[in-house]
Amino acid sequence: MEPLIQLRNMEKVYEAGGSKFYVLRRVSLEIQPGEFVTFMGPSGAGKSTLLSIIGMLDGSWTGEYYFNGEPVHRLNVKKRNELHKANIGFVFQSYHLIDNLTVFENLEIPLSYKNVPHKERVSLVCDILDRFNIVGKKDLFPNQLSGGQQQLVGVARAVIQSPKLILADEPTGNLHSAQGEEIMELFRKLNEAGTSIIQVTHSERNAAYSHRVIQLKDGWVVSETSNAARVG
Amino acid sequence: MQNLWKDITFGLRMLSKSPGFTAIAVITLALGIGANTAIFSLMNQILLRQLPVENPGELVILRAPGPATGHISSDGDSTESFSYPIYKGLRDNNSVFSGILARYTFSASVANHGQTDRATGELVSGNYFGVLGVQPAVGRVFTPDDDRVPGAQPVVVLSYPYWTRHFGGNPTVLNKVLLINNVEMTVVGVSPPGFFGVQVGQTPDIFVPMMMTAQMTLSGETLDGWNDYWIKVLARRKPGVSEKQAEAGINTVYRPLLEEQLPLIKSGWNEDKRQKFLNKKISLSPGARGRTVLQRDSGSQIITLFVMVALVLLIACTNVANLLLARGASRQREFAIRTAMGASRGRMIRQLLAESLLCALGGGVLGILLGTWLMRILTPIVVANAGIQGLTDKLDPSVLTFALAATILSGIFFGLIPAWRVTRLGVSDVIKDQGSTSSASVAHVGFRKVLVAGQVAFTMLLLAGAGLFMRSLWNLRNQDLGLKTDNVITFSIEPPLNGYDTPRSIALIDQLRERIAALPGVRSVGTGDIATLSGDDEGSNITAEGSPEIPEDLDDVDRVAVSPGYFSTLGIPLLSGREFREGDAATAPKVAVASEAMVKRFFPGRNPIGAHFAFGGGNKVKPDIEIVGVVKDVKQEHVSSAVQPYVYVPYAQRTKITGMTFYVRSTQDPLLLGTSLQGEVRQMDANLPVYDLKTMERVVEEDLFSARMVAVLSAAFAGLAALLAALGIYGVLAYLVVQRTREIGIRMALGAVAGQVRLLIVKEVGSMVLLGVGVGLPLAYGLARFSESLLYGVHAGDPAVYALGLGLIGLIALAACFLPARRATRVDPLVALRYQ
Ligand SMILES: Nc1ncnc2c1ncn2[C@@H]1O[C@H](COP(=O)(O)OP(=O)(O)OP(=O)(O)O)[C@@H](O)[C@H]1O
Ligand SMILES: [Mg+2]
User: Fold this and answer.
1) Is the pLDDT confidence value at B2 over 70?
2) Which of B281, B389, B454, B471 has the fewest Cβ atoms surrounding its Cβ within 10 A?
3) In this predicted model, what pLDDT tens digit does every residue of B641-679 receive, in sequence order?
4) Is A174 on the interface with B (CB under 8 A)?
5) What span, in angstroms and rounded, lies between the C-alpha atoms of B732 and B441?
6) Does residue B24 carry a pLDDT above 60?
7) Which residues have a Cβ under 8 Å from the Cβ of A212 and sit 6 or more positions away?
């Protein structure tokens, strides 16, 4: 089967005052469809950077990147955006819901950018509210929710457009362990239903939910370990 | 559509979430758009509007520059005046115009049911309405048949406003006989509403066929005099005939007419001048907007004001853009999230634009309300003071279109720049939960400073402009007019319009003077046939006994026919000799009083008392008028006009009297005399209209009106601009202080004292102001040069005005940075360092 993600010799450089600073060095890796992968590593290792490159939010890097066989490194901004919109959902450490929109409207945002017709949008949002058990919260604003609830909405927003891949940067970083576990369980279910997931985490417990752990350090991939003792 | 609706509702929500921002933005824009709407309405009506006639684009105005001699009457450009025989020749022989019309304004005294009113009349050729394609509202308009035989067509068409004002819009007015300038005239029709003739700023009340000229006018305009230049001519090009072709075509007809006229010219022209005369060419200019007298007189005022008010709107927009940028910075996170959710930049810009357009729309609606209110205040003032008739304070479609266009353009201008910049920044920093928004915001601050510098530049321009205009007004106000205006009231009558011949007119004026002098509260009374400071003048060349050789263009003097008591009533100082007395009657020796300037030019270094002169030139004139007195120079025409040489003669010795203006000096408030003065005239002749009854102080104010309007409005605009610029500077500084709280805290922790912190803020202001002033000064000088004709006693580069402008900008900047600087010095280092 074709890998979902294939990186070859990916490098990312920041230039500051004439001197170059490498954030990612010759990163090569493959991720298969349906895989659940964890990036780990010390602070500043380049995990978030790698995640935004995979998520196609960051376009300034060198090397090769194939997504589902498509050469991302050869696509222009518009095409890359299309690919991103169609296939990838994000979950953030600090949820990043839009303060001035209700839960319902926050969930609607990715759909509106994909020009999903109004009727279909409403039914999709209702489905997801149902699935995540947050129908009662749909008219509340983010600041009226607990952190865990906000992240629940964050995950719901990432999956509403049924992406092939979910990218999560320390999704439980701001949550109590019980709330964190709930989110991880959610990820596991989504993964079992076929969605590929890449997460960044500092927590061994969270890492245990994934199939594979990739260690980064100073921009280098230093080790990959398959996770035999996977939770569940 | 769906998305657009989303953008709009979300925009509304965002606006209502920050009511402070929204209110400031909407009010700022409303002020800008309101002021622009009002000024545009004036500009549209005075400069831009086309005549409400059929295909105005086909109309052209005829001019004939070149030598002319004879009786030339003009309202600014004498090349626009034609004699009737020339007009007739052009009209009947040309093949390039579908019609050529002639018209001339006259003053009328209209009696109906024993009530007499003054009205503005228009003598028109029979084809006038036909050429313009104007249909009657009631009855009929003239046809060429109404205009064939001199004196034989006593018919009149009323204008629609006159008809509604005086006859209640009643159609039974048809066939009614009115006594117009003492001639019985039959009403045959009413012109349509909205039609005001062919000259913007005038609203004729009645139209009379040109063949009635002798019966209607007083100044000797004739239908057969080849050398009487008085008629104003417009023509309609035949469809498909270009202006060039029309010009060529009409000149082939013109040449033979000139050849016919040449033998009738009596002046001693040399061969060269005669050739030049024969080579005169008619030139055509576009007539879609009618005759351009008003455009010529008020164009530069209006354009100057419009430029200034447009700048105010630009400053207002910049302010809102600045606010939006500040807000955009705090919404960075929202846009980063939206990008991560797949929003394209275009979509986000569209969303932001929807928001700013909503805001603009709010400002526009409020601005249009404000604008109509301003128009309602401004228009009557302009009508009453500037003598510009027919201005409406209604919001006509073109003004509404302008206001809406201004609104939308503003919305796009102040929305697009921030939207462009806010959405330009990368998203990964924000998404990664790492950076604060500060790095992005710092980039905005530089741009915001540029915007503020732009505001300062425009404000500098407006301040300098306002300064120059205020200075001009001050100079005008403090002119020595040569006369005393306090406690004097004036009014005018025109007895010949009611059938008085000259001896009867003189007798009437004599008696009126006597009766008025006897009124309680009256100190003295005097009359003159040319109203002081009304812009009118009447001149002639003179031949003075023993005068030095005087170049041809300098031998003109202006003349006023006055009564005994004229000088003392107006407070014009007598320098030597005597005033006129009752004994200077028609049969007595001819006498005159000369002005200082007249003496200086014609009798330099001599005692003029007892010297003689005569009006006119050539060998046959005999200087038989004796100078009996000399008075100080007076500003007769306008406060702003240069001093001209004047001679005053007793009106009793004039052979023809048209109108007379009375001046009454009272012991109390002169306005209290108003009704008794009117009463005196009514007792002498109940049908004689009294007009222009007002105090001399008001006469001066009216003469200064356009200078005052420009000064006051430009000062108001400059004040508004200064306020907006101050807000702009304040906004950026306040934001900077918040941005730099941590930095300031660190500096203070390291030992910076309040003064040094304040200096930090002042430096920020300094850079913005210097940049702004650097750009603004040359711009200001440019506008001042454009408007130089509006300046009086001050030149476009007056250093004092610019210095004052700079000082004001400095004050504004200091005022704007006061609060932010104070806040900066109050930063608590401990708190600030924990601040994230
Ligand atoms: N805009 C930038 N300019 C310069 N260097 C940057 C920029 N953004 C990130 N970096 C650097 O890139 C490196 C990798 O950053 P990244 O955010 O990917 O780390 P991380 O592994 O996610 O760390 P953490 O676990 O703390 O989130 C860091 O050393 C950081 O300083
Ligand atoms: Mg990170």
Assistant:
1) no
2) B281
3) 888 899 999 999 988 888 999 999 999 889 889 899 999
4) no
5) 12
6) yes
7) A35, A36, A37, A38, A224, A225, A226, A227
Q: Where in chain A are the domains?
A: 31-51+78-226
Decide if B340 and A57 are in contact by the 8 Å CB cutoff.
yes
Model ipTM? 0.75
Domain A31-51+78-226 has CATH 3.30.540.10: no
Cβ A43 under 6 angstroms from ligand 1 = yes
Nearest CA owner, ligand 1 atom 31: A44
- Interchain proximity B339–A55, CB inside 8 Å: no
Using CA atoms, how far apart are residues B778 and A87, in angstroms rounded to an integer? 57
A149 lines ligand 1 (CB under 6 A): no
> What does pLDDT average to over chain B?
88
Q: What is the pLDDT of residue B308?
A: 92
Helical H segments across chain A, by residue range: 47-54, 77-87, 103-112, 118-131, 147-159, 177-192, 204-207
Which candidate in A53, A57, A200 is best for mutational testing of the B interface (most B CBs within 10 A)?
A57
What is B54-85 written as a DSSP string? S-GGGEEEEE--S---SEE--SS-GGGEE-HH
Residue type, B745: G
Residues in CB range of B653: below 8 A, 6 or more apart: B561, B584, B585, B586, B588, B590, B591
Q: What backbone torsions phi and psi does residue A218 show, to the nearest 5 degrees?
A: 50, 35
Question: Between A and B, how many residue pairs show a Cβ–Cβ distance under 8 A?
Answer: 68
Ligand 2 centroid from CA A216, angstroms = 12
State yes or no: pLDDT of B436 exceeds 60. no
Asked whether the predicted pLDDT for residue B185 surpasses 60, the reply is: yes
Would you kindly state where each structural domain of chain B is located, as residue ranges?
1-49+310-437, 56-288, 447-478+705-836, 488-703
Query: Any chain A CB within 8 A of the CB of B12?
Result: no
Distance CA B786, CA B789 (A): 8
Do residues A22 and A10 touch, judged by C-beta distance below 8 A?
A: no
Q: Report phi then psi at B42, rounded to 5.
A: -65, -45
Are A171 and A199 a contacting pair, CB within 8 Å?
A: yes
Contact B371, B33 (CB under 8 A): yes
A97 has a chain B CB within 8 A of its CB: yes
Q: Is B725 exposed, middle or buried (0-12, 13-18, 19+ CB in 10 A)?
A: buried
Rounded-to-10 torsion of CA B661, B663, B664, B665: 180
Q: Which residue owns the Cα nearest ligand 1 atom 11? A: A23
Contact A113 B6 (CB under 8 A): no
Angle at B255 between CA B253 and CA B259, to 5 degrees: 125
Contacts of B797 (CB under 8 A, 6+ apart): B781, B784
**pLDDT (tens digit per residue) in B398-435:** 889 999 999 999 888 888 888 888 777 666 655 555 44
Whether the CB of A83 is below 8 Å from some CB of chain B: the reply is: no
Give the C-alpha separation, B188 to B196, whole Å.
Answer: 18
Phi, psi dihedral angles at B210 (to 5 degrees): -60, -25
Half-sphere exposure of B364 (CA within 13 A, CB side): 20
Q: Which two tokens stand for residue B317?
A: 């927009």
Question: From ligand 1's centre to the CA of A73, what distance in Å?
Answer: 22
More confident residue, B115 or A1: B115
**B370 Cα–ligand 2 center, Å:** 54
Could you give the CA distance from residue B503 to residue B505 in angstroms, rounded to a whole number?
Answer: 5
Residues of chain B above pLDDT 70, percent: 96
- Of B333, B338, B432, nearest to A52 by CB-CB distance is B432
CB contacts, 8 Å: A48 with chain B: 428, 432-434
Mean pLDDT of B238-249: 92
Q: How many CA atoms lie within 13 A of B686 on its CB side?
A: 4
Mean pLDDT of A34-62: 91
